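Fold it.
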Amino acid sequence: MSGIIAGIDGSAHSSPVLEWAIKEAALRNATVTVITVDNVPANPWTGNPTVLAGETAELERISTIAEELTQKVTSQIGEPRPQSITVRAVAGYPAQELIDASQNADLVVVGSRGAGGFARLLLGSVSSQVMQHAHCPVVVVHS
């Protein structure tokens, strides 16, 4: 999955991330993969993500939200457009999913803050982890 990864969480900070990623992909004639992650609990013994019963419905819900937001932002930007835009919803840990996706990406774009409750922080925990561990360059979009 080469191209640009846009990590969104459905918060108000997601729109500027999508806008930046889509415009950059259009300039580079690249693809955009929008990734939204359902943050699931850790298994107390292994530390691995635990996907609970009913997780499929939550994945569908966040996928729909991400699709709608992506459509809205894309329609507001106009031309030029990226080669393609794909939306993926996965269950796991947001930072780890984005770091894993960065292994085959040219660029990862994340927001400075998301749905977390620490509004005074300049950088959120997910964006901080992604910046430190990604396998490609990372852009943090401040809104």
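The radius of gyration is 15 Å.
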